[in-house]
Design brief:
The complex is a heterodimer of chains A (about 775) and B (about 700).
Chain A: H1 2-37, E1 54-60, H2 64-81, E2 86-92, H3 98-105, E3 110-114, H4 119-130, E4 135-140, E5 143-145, H5 150-155, E6 162-170, E7 183-188, E8 191-196, H6 201-206, E9 208-210, E10 218-222, H7 223-228, H8 242-252, E11 256-267, H9 273-276, H10 279-297, H11 300-309, H12 320-325, H13 330-339, H14 347-355, H15 357-364, E12 378-383, H16 393-405, E13 410-417, H17 423-432, E14 435-440, H18 461-473, E15 478-482, E16 498-503, H19 507-517, H20 521-542, E17 547-550, H21 553-559, E18 568-570, E19 591-595, H22 601-621, E20 626-630, H23 636-641, E21 647-651, H24 657-662, E22 665-668, H25 678-686, E23 689-692, E24 709-710, H26 714-725, H27 728-745, H28 748-766
Parallel strand pairs in A: 1-2, 1-4, 2-3, 6-11, 12-13, 12-15, 13-14, 15-16, 16-17, 17-18, 19-20, 19-22, 20-21, 22-23, 23-24
Antiparallel strand pairs in A: 4-10, 5-11, 6-10, 7-8, 9-11
Helix pairs in contact in A: 1-11, 1-13, 10-13, 14-15, 15-18, 16-28, 19-20, 22-26, 25-27
Chain B: E1 2-6, H1 11-24, E2 29-33, H2 38-46, E3 51-53, E4 64-70, H3 77-85, E5 88-94, E6 100-102, H4 105-110, H5 121-129, E7 138-142, H6 147-157, E8 166-170, H7 175-182, E9 189-193, H8 201-204, H9 206-209, E10 215-218, E11 224-226, H10 229-242, E12 252-256, H11 261-271, E13 281-287, H12 291-297, E14 302-306, H13 312-325, E15 329-333, H14 341-349, E16 354-358, E17 364-366, E18 393-397, H15 402-413, E19 422-428, H16 432-436, E20 441-447, H17 452-464, E21 469-473, H18 481-489, E22 494-498, E23 504-507, H19 512-521, E24 532-536, H20 541-551, E25 561-567, H21 571-575, E26 580-586, H22 592-603, E27 608-612, H23 620-628, E28 633-637, E29 643-646, H24 651-657, H25 664-699
Parallel strand pairs in B: 1-2, 1-4, 2-3, 4-5, 7-8, 7-9, 9-10, 12-13, 12-15, 13-14, 15-16, 18-19, 18-21, 19-20, 21-22, 24-25, 24-27, 25-26, 27-28
Antiparallel strand pairs in B: 5-6, 10-11, 16-17, 22-23, 28-29
The chains are: A alpha/beta (about 775), B alpha/beta (about 700).
């Protein structure tokens, strides 16, 4: 209630602010338009920077005791760094004898003695003007520098776009670490929240990453650009936020502000300001400066929500009175806003860069590539499911190919995980990959407003953040997206990396098979819409990668015409002939086996169809026949099938080969879905006779009557199954032929060779 | 010498100065430039000024020898500037002593904000002691207040009447005919009484109906003011802000019994205090039951009793007796107890002009719209030292086991809770002896457990006892429901409730939410002591298995007995567990069997409900059931199997469980938009597909 009253009370003020900012924005637009017409646009070319030496500027007010502590380590560090560095101390009208003490004790230090305390910003401005080197390091008088703090700062200026680079700020062990130097901001509910974030691994591996602002207490600046910007703005006098404002102005001109994690300083925080202001006043001082910073710099459209929300969310210790009092500098703020040039970087991008440095890297270093040590490529596998053996075919295929590729290249895996039960499979991936990151899949975010988004459940902020962090840390030659939906994250990859997408299943074609078997016309329309929506998204994603890998020629045919044919490659799914060994013995007569994970809906449909329409026909002729339904996650419909005493639903089994061995006939009565059927390959590998529908055989080297029996109608399917059950010799013949097919065409080793060749080929093309 | 006095001061000092000028300069021809006050009109009419001008009446060619600006009071901008533009030989200002000062334009303008002269002693004396503005000529005295008020204030309001004034008195009665007579009479002014009491409304309108300009109002203490827009607004503002001045004029006070004797007797004593009505004659209308007691007490001048259900003749008799008493005001005690409701209603609806009320702290105040809030401002003081009676009457409703009830009564006997309580117990017949032996139990009302009517009769008897405190036990067991309901309905100044841990709470209406929260959360249960859990299946089988394992954690419940509500197809997953005591299965879809299962579930005797809330949009019904199931303790497990005890303070946890970071309105909006966009999107996709196929055909 109080908040609402505050909002109502401040509404006229907010409206006034909107009007004034709108007017200034219009004037600014006219000014810039006029400047374009007269050709008065553009930045002055940056003069080359001498990185051999620098000027260190320290502003001090009654801080003789602090200088006594901070100057000796600084002078030692400068001596160690070599070069002709200089130290400039700006005395802000101290009355504690700092000037005399410095002149007597440190004659090598240049002293700029001011009569009055001009504040932190103006003091630094005077110091920078007095400095003689191209690079100026601004230090607080309470900063204790590490011995090697200077080298990383000076090295950073090899980047021509760099405006400033900040050091990593540490605190005494007994104090809370209020600052780190890794600064960033987030615009939320109309307010720009500034913060110091902890350093991540990426900061050390990349040496420098972008920050929102370089603190005026421990940062190196390009002096000419500093002066070009006019130094710290006087409206923030006496202290706080002037460095944030300066860095922002640099960013909007297209110059960068970064942090060098290796450069370290120790801060005795607020030693000077705490002497002058009580804590409450200090907080209010910072808050009003934050407002001026926002009003002065931010885009008008971002300020609108700020004006709407801010009176409701007035920070603690900053009441309405202080807020209205902060309007005193509004004219000066607006005048400065009017003078600002066209922005090179908008606010949202800047915020994004500081939160996700990978986007910054992609912008400034789009072609970065890692070094290929010994011809070993760095591969990143981005998978929708945890690649592992034993649960479902797709994960098994990815694991088989990935583990073989890992023998020749460095593979890093990042994938979604589903619950704790998958953790036991993580070890399989860890054994073969250099690094494995699993992200729980539970925070899906909407993709769009349109009904039915097929890949929405894989659009996860947590995964995006994890991948962004990974890519900020290291570069990869190739990013391989397993499953279509993972291409949602291709925008995080730099343009220099090759992007491959494996279409384990062409999703829209699978939808169309569902539409075909659907009888309710309303659901048919809905299904058709879903298939179209899926096609649209799938094509959209396929077009954004360099190569699309299909698992069958049939799948390739589905995508041809939507995707350029030369970007489509077919690599089949295989089977491990050593694991699934050919065994003639162990067959139990009149035993039928179906294998499939029941999270995959075509398997559910297939078994319901088989048990309702085909199996009764078989039982009529051979009542002693048994059916084993093997596979993880059986649904309710599947479990209900077990009410028939001749049917056994096993659920998840650790070794499916046991059931293949006892099977006289393996059935694959699929009516929906696309892609390759691993169960047929496994049946072949063990040497068992297989009966399958034509849809199940798509993309496989099948020959009716030679290595498989293909039957479509229920009666024909039952007839052929009965024929096989009654003729063990025929079964054996089919099994032998199937085994030969597998050995010849579907060995994982040969398929892994194809994948690795593809990697090499694309990497060479990219070079 | 023609002098024009500008009305740039309030009427009283203006007229005071005019009289001073008349005394000091009797040779001057004094004319007034009038602003708008009624008093100046009166004075002009009474001959204080030789002529009275309005601004519009002044001819352009008229010139005065001297224009006087009296006092240069703050404001009066228009008249000051207008007067400055009138041609004159000299312009001067006058201070409070009547001395003349030069007056320039600058001084005139600065006086708009800052008056230059301070009032002197003579003026103050003259203004206070000598009536400044008096009504002269023919004056109408409107007696719009009681005779007593008129008489009491006479010394003050007579000062506003000129001794030679011809006073016509207008009293209440036959107003229309009086108006017909008086409308033909020309009055120079009117005196009106506004004592802040309701009534005399039509009488108060008379001065304006008769077109009298100069009206002076007299309030209940005799203070007078000229009636104009601003003064009337000021008067109303002060009335609202300060109320009416306490005027102790009642002689005969009618008391209604709205409380028990101690309160009424104390109220009668207090009303005779020196600052209230020390010589008042009091009549008490009380219940027959208390007649003797009040009669013996001797605090009331007369006591009149009324039966609980009086006949029409009884009512007539009572009315006649009250009219014979002719009370000036009516009084009662409001202690916020729901007793003597009829008497309280009569008190509020009676047409007495003045009503006095005592609240539960026995503070006395005039009952007006402004002060009516005072009735509920005080909490009952039943547990503090009572004015007269030593103990308080507690109605105890048996609503738990005998052991629990015995302990609860011990708690009430604690002096910090109640001083020497006298219990009236309502219990089943078989417990009569047990209660009768207890200390402090004065009366035991019994009922037969199997007969509802018997219970109602006993409850009625208990209600007639008018207990001050009603107390019962709330153990969260589904027993003694009528008794608990009776606890809430029974009249009583305070309700003491005991929770299952026998913590005692006073249920207060104004803080009921806080009390209930305390009541429910005061002593969080130690889950280790709890055995019976209800587990709702809200996740996959493997997760559920792990969750049930984690329930056995030493910090949660080492030996739980679990009732599982799960899908029939997953029944076997839970059946094998030794800790699962019972399984209530359901099938997919809506069926009678499911409803019966739900009924079974609701009847299950469980103390804690547990479920996994991982944020996945599945098992929504079960999740809803988790929140709605009537049980006190809820345990929620997140995706990492971290256990959270849900209470109001941990509501933030639920926010984190949501599967989408969007707010609910945003999610709803998105869902609606999705529905609306279905057809346009479908059409777009069809067109897109047609174009893509065409392109594909060309490319092929």
């Amino acid at each position: 209630m109080m908040r609402l009253l505050k909002w109502i009370f401040l509404l006229p003020v907010q409206l006034l602010l909107v009007l004034l900012h709108g007017a200034v924005e219009a004037l600014r637009f006219l000014r810039l338009a006029f400047a374009i017409q007269t050709g008065n646009v553009g930045d002055q070319a940056a003069p080359p920077v001498d990185r051999a030496s620098c000027s260190v500027v320290i502003v001090s007010w009654n801080g003789r005791d602090l200088l006594e502590e901070s100057l000796p380590p600084l002078l030692r560090a400068l001596t160690r760094a070599g070069g002709s560095h200089e130290v400039v101390v700006v005395d802000n009208g101290s009355d504690d004898g700092t000037v005399e003490w410095l002149a007597q004790r440190y004659p090598q230090v240049r002293l700029v003695a001011l009569q009055d305390n001009l504040g932190f910003g103006e003091g630094n401005n005077r110091g920078v003007r007095a400095a003689s080197r191209d690079i100026v390091v601004l230090l607080n008088n309470d900063m204790i520098v590490a011995e090697d703090f200077l080298r990383p700062l000076l090295e950073a200026f090899e980047d021509p776009a760099l405006f400033a680079v900040s050091s990593q700020i540490e605190f005494p062990p007994e104090q809370r670490r209020e600052e780190t130097g890794n600064t960033r901001g987030r615009f939320r509910r109309g307010y720009f929240h500034l913060e110091h974030a902890p350093f991540r691994q990426a900061h050390y591996s990349r040496r420098r990453l972008p920050v929102l602002w370089a603190g005026g207490g421990a940062s190196a600046f390009n002096r000419s650009r500093f002066l070009q910007l006019g130094g710290f703005s006087s409206i923030f006098s006496p202290c706080y936020l002037e460095d944030t404002d300066l860095s922002y102005r640099a960013w909007r001109r297209g110059w960068t502000v970064q942090v060098a994690a290796q450069s370290r300083v120790l801060h005795k925080h607020r030693s000077t300001s705490a002497r002058r202001f009580p804590p409450q006043q200090l907080r209010a001082l910072i808050e009003e400066r934050k407002l001026w910073y926002l009003w002065k710099n931010f885009q008008f459209r971002r300020l609108l929500p700020h004006f709407l929300w801010y009176p409701i969310d007035l920070p603690e210790g900053f009441g309405m009175g202080r807020y209205i009092w902060s309007l005193r500098k509004l004219p000066a703020v607006l005048a400065l806003r009017l003078r600002e040039p066209r922005r090179a970087v908008d606010d949202a991008t800047l915020e994004d860069w500081t939160w996700h440095p990978v986007r910054f890297l992609n912008h400034f270093l789009p072609d970065r590539r890692p070094n290929a040590a010994g011809g070993r490529l760095k591969l990143l596998v981005v998978s929708a499911y945890l690649p592992h053996l034993g649960t479902h075919g797709g994960a098994g295929r990815v694991f088989q190919l990935m583990s073989r590729a890992a023998l020749r290249h460095e593979v890093t895996l990042i994938c979604f995980t589903e619950g704790r039960d998958e953790e036991r499979f993580l070890q399989q991936a860890r054994d073969c990959c250099r690094r494995v990151l699993g992200v729980p899949r539970n925070d899906c975010q909407p993709l769009s407003l349109f009904p039915y988004e097929p890949f929405e459940e894989f659009n996860s902020r947590a995964f995006r953040n994890a991948l962004a962090d990974l890519l900020a840390e290291e570069d990869f030659h190739i990013a391989h997206f397993e499953w279509t939906q993972m291409a949602l994250y291709r925008d995080l990859l730099p343009s220099g990396a090759v992007k491959i997408l494996t279409e384990i299943e062409v999703n829209y074609a699978a939808h169309q098979t569902l539409v075909k078997v659907e009888r309710n016309w309303l659901r048919k329309i809905r299904g058709y819409y879903n298939s179209l929506q899926t096609l649209y998204r799938e094509v959209e994603l396929c077009r954004l990668v360099d190569r699309v890998v299909c698992v069958t020629n049939q799948d390739r045919g589905y995508l041809e015409g939507f995707v350029e044919p030369d970007r489509l490659t077919v690599i089949n799914t295989g089977v491990d002939p050593d694991e699934f060994r050919y065994e003639e013995q162990g067959v139990e007569p009149d035993t039928i086996v179906f294998v499939g994970a029941f999270r995959h809906s075509p398997n559910v449909d297939a078994m319901v169809y088989f048990c309702n329409d085909i199996f009764p026909l078989i039982l009529r002729e051979r009542p002693q026949t048994r059916l084993y339904i093997v596979g993880s996650s059986p649904t309710r419909e599947i479990l209900e099938l077990a009410t028939n005493p001749r049917i056994t639903v096993t659920g998840f089994v650790h070794d499916i080969r046991t059931y293949y061995r006892i099977a006289q006939v393996v059935v694959v009565p699929l009516r929906t879905g696309v892609g390759i059927r691993g169960k047929i390959l496994e049946g072949w590998a063990v040497g068992r006779a297989t009966v399958a529908t034509p849809l199940a055989c798509q993309g496989l080297r099948t020959c009716h009557g030679e290595n498989i029996v293909i039957a479509d109608e229920p009666e024909r399917f039952a007839m052929w199954t009965l024929a096989l059950l009654g003729n063990p010799d025929f079964c054996r013949r089919l099994g032998e032929a199937g085994r030969q097919t597998v050995e010849r065409h579907y060995d994982w080793n040969s398929l892994a060779d194809q994948v690795c060749s593809l990697y090499q080929e694309l990497a060479q093309e990219n070079e | 010498m023609r002098v024009l006095l500008v009305e740039c001061a309030t009427p009283r000092p203006l007229l005071y100065l005019a009289r001073e000028l008349r005394k000091q300069h009797p040779q001057w021809r004094l004319e007034l430039l009038r602003g708008g006050s009624a008093a100046s009109k009166v004075e002009a009419a009474a001959g204080l000024f030789d002529r009275c001008w309005a601004l519009t009446e002044i001819p352009a060619d008229r010139e005065w020898d001297l224009i006087l600006f009296p006092l240069l009071s703050r404001g009066f901008v228009q008249i000051k500037l207008a007067a400055w533009r009138i041609p004159a030989k000299q312009r001067k200002s006058i201070d409070f002593s009547g001395r003349l000062h030069d007056c320039g334009l600058r001084r005139l303008l600065t006086s708009v904000l800052r008056p230059p002269y301070a009032p002197g002693d003579e003026f103050v004396k003259g203004e206070v002691d000598e009536a400044a503005g008096q009504l002269r000529g023919r004056v109408l005295l409107v007696k719009s207040a009681s005779d007593e008020t008129v008489e009491r204030t006479r010394p003050r309001w007579t000062r506003r009447l000129d001794p030679q004034a011809e006073v016509h008195v207008l009293e209440y009665g036959a107003l229309f005919s009086q108006w017909r007579i008086l409308r033909r009479v020309q009055f120079s002014g009117a005196l009106l009484f506004v004592d802040g009491r309701p009534g005399y409304f039509r009488l108060k309108l008379f001065p304006w109906l008769l077109g009298i300009d100069a009206v002076i109002a007299v309030d209940e203490i005799g203070a007078t003011f000229e009636v104009n827009r601003s003064s009337l607004a000021r008067h109303i503002f002060h009335r609202i802000r300060d109320g009416r001045a306490p005027v102790r004029e009642g002689r005969r006070i009618l008391f209604l019994q709205t409380e028990t004797p101690p309160y009424m007797l104390e109220a009668a004593r207090r009303i005779r205090s020196p600052h209230l009505y020390p010589r008042a004659e009091t009549l008490l209308l009380c219940s027959e039951r208390y007649y003797e007691r009040f009669s013996k007490a001797g605090e009331f001048s007369r006591v009149l009793s009324a039966p609980a259900r009086p006949s029409i003749f009884e009512l007539w008799r009572i009315r006649r007796l009250i009219r014979a008493f002719d009370p000036d005001l009516i009084c009662c005690v409001y202690s916020r107890r729901p007793i003597f409701r009829k008497a309280k209603a009569y008190f509020l609806l009676s047409g007495f002009r003045k009503k006095l009320a005592f609240n539960s702290a026995l503070d006395c105040f005039d009952l007006t719209i402004r002060t009516i809030g005072e009735l509920g401002r005080w909490e009952p003081l039943l547990f503090e030292s009572h004015p007269e009676e030593a103990g308080c009457r507690v109605a105890w409703i048996h609503s738990g086991t005998m052991t629990e009830c015995r302990r609860a009564l011990e708690t009430i006997r604690n002096p910090e809770v109640a001083i020497r309580p006298a219990f009236t117990v309502l219990c089943p017949q078989e417990l009569e002896e047990a209660y009768a032996e207890m200390e402090g139990v004065e009366q035991v009302l019994t009922y037969q457990s199997s007969q509802g009517f018997s219970f109602l009769q006993a409850a009625r008897k208990l209600a007639r006892e008018n207990p001050e405190v009603v107390s019962a036990l709330f153990t969260r067991r589904r027993k003694f429901l009528p008794q608990k309901l009776l606890f809430l309905l029974l009249p009583g100044a305070a309700r003491l409730a005991f929770n299952r841990h026998l913590d005692c709470f006073i249920l207060r209406r104004r803080k009921i939410g806080k009390t209930i929260r305390l009541f429910l959360e005061s002593t969080p249960i130690h889950l280790r002591e709890v055995q019976r859990f209800l587990f709702l299946e809200t996740e996959g089988p493997e997760f559920c298995r792990q969750l049930l394992d984690s329930l056995h954690h030493a910090k949660i419940a080492p030996k739980p007995l679990i009732t599982v509500y799960c899908n029939e197809s997953r029944r076997q997953l839970f059946e094998s567990r030794p800790d699962v005591e019972r399984i209530v299965p359901y099938n997919s879809g809506f069926s009678l069997q499911n409803l019966l299962g739900l009924k079974k579930l609701l009847d299950a005797d469980v103390e804690v409900v547990a479920a996994a809330l991982t944020g996945r949009p599945t098992f929504r019904f079960q999740k809803l059931l988790f929140f709605l199931y009537p049980v006190r303790h809820r345990l929620a497990f997140n995706e990492h199997l971290h256990c959270h005890y849900l209470e109001s303070s941990s509501a933030g946890f639920l926010r984190n469980l949501r599967d989408s970071p969007e707010s609910l309105p945003l999610s709803l909006g998105r869902a609606i938009l999705k529905g609306a966009l279905f057809l346009p999107r479908f059409l777009y996709l069809l067109v897109w597909l047609a174009l893509a196929k065409r392109k594909r055909a060309r490319g092929g």
